[in-house]
Amino acid sequence: MMERYSGYNDSGVEWIGEIPLKWEEIKLKHLTQKIGSGITPRGGAEVYLDSGIPLIRSQNVHFDGLQLEKVAYISQEIHDSMSSTKIKPNDVLFNITGASIGRCSYVPNDFREANVNQHVCIIRPNRKVGSQYLKYLLESIVGQSQVFHSQVGTSREGLNFEQLKNFIFCLPAEGEQDSIVAFLNHKTHLIDTLIEKKQKQIELLQEQRAAVINQAVTKGLNPNVKMKDSGIEWLGEVPEHWEIKRLKHISPKQTVGVVVNPSSYFSDEGVPFLLGNNVLEGKFNTGSVRTISPESNEKLKKSMLRSGDLAVVRVGYPGTAAVVPPELDGCNCASIMIVRKDQSFDSHWLCYSINSAIGKYQVDVVKYGAAQKQYNISHAVEFWYPVPPYGEQSEIRKEIDKKSEIIDDSICKLQKHVDLIQEYRTTLISEVVTGKIDVRNEVIP
Fold first, then answer.
1. In terms of DSSP bridges, do strands 332-333 and 271-274 run parallel, antiparallel, or are they unpaired?
2. What average pLDDT score do residues 211-224 get?
3. Are 183 and 439 spatial neighbours (Cβ–Cβ below 8 Å)?
4. What is the CATH number of domain 225-387?
5. I need a labelling partner for 418 at 20 to 30 A (CA). Which of 42, 93, 190, 270 fits?
6. By the 8 A CB rule, do 120 and 94 touch?
7. Which of 155-169, 267-281, 324-338 is predicted with the least confidence, judged by mean pLDDT?
8. In 230-306, where do the E strands start and end?
9. pLDDT-based confidence at residue 155 (cuts at 50, 70, 90)
10. pLDDT at 398 over 50
11. What are phi and psi of 441, to 5 degrees?
């Protein structure tokens, strides 16, 4: 049981509550020397490079640190022209738009040159607060609740600088920040290590699920079936009675959601309008789906989806596919390849095939774009797939469904554990940075 401070005062701020004596309430603008965001270079993704100066975007900013595995790069010339948006060591980077709004990270001391785009805010602390402590303030419940209550924008969440400047926090008495940061660094490291182990278990189960799918769609369910050479080096042998077909010969009906400016059709209510980020492997994420009016949907008949069609992501995570369920019948889409339902194949079997390793391999060969990966339908229709008879397609689909359900159940349980651990992490940070518990005498190994 951790100790509390000897005395408290009412902060007068509802979301902070009581704070220890000698602590003070203070607005973010009095803790910083700079609050400002970056810009997207002229030309957008077209000027991104495979190497150069990192351009940090919202997907690179995480609570457990900057994740730069998929960072975009810009030239030295563009970097120099964006001098006001260059980051410095000990800056705090804070996402101000989109689904990851409020996520933040600090820039390590040894970090080299980089820039940020307009979705990431640079918060440069002054001498009153350290960057790590400020980062903990922002990711605490106190910080995140202010993010939630300050969001603006109808189609996309957003924060402006004036709102950020007026965020209210409590600051410890002089000399306490270092002990609090040391405690939280130690505890969050232990928590993050545990989360990492759980996530590794999830990844292994996902790999197992992928192996089950790939085995079933390339070798079938009968281990004793006679095999033949597919004639395709990367595919290898397939059951002798199967055919090898290009996608255009499995389903001759492919169309694409090609709305030039989908945002011009968005409305507050109406028919669901799917973008690439709404399509996951084998399912749809409709939590943040846009809508268009029935009249607009009628104008866009070519890209209207029907139950049983396959929606295949063309831009973003190209090749990811899901079968349109009855509840999304009649909705519309953009940046998606539509494989129309046909009586000659089982939609769910084809979906598993497209999402399998052989589908992903063929996407990797033809995809392009430094930041926004995509492929052309003219390439996708030429992809090869091993095709069993229709009845066997259904058997394969049912067997994958059964095995996937068991694996997905295990993944779901692990993810719940991860969510609970992350919730504890946030609560611990919040209790410490608001002074609800006193960690000054905690022993750090």
1. parallel
2. 97
3. yes
4. 3.90.220.20
5. 93
6. yes
7. 155-169
8. 237-239, 243-246, 254-256, 266-267, 271-274, 279-280, 283-284, 290-292
9. very low
10. yes
11. -100, 10
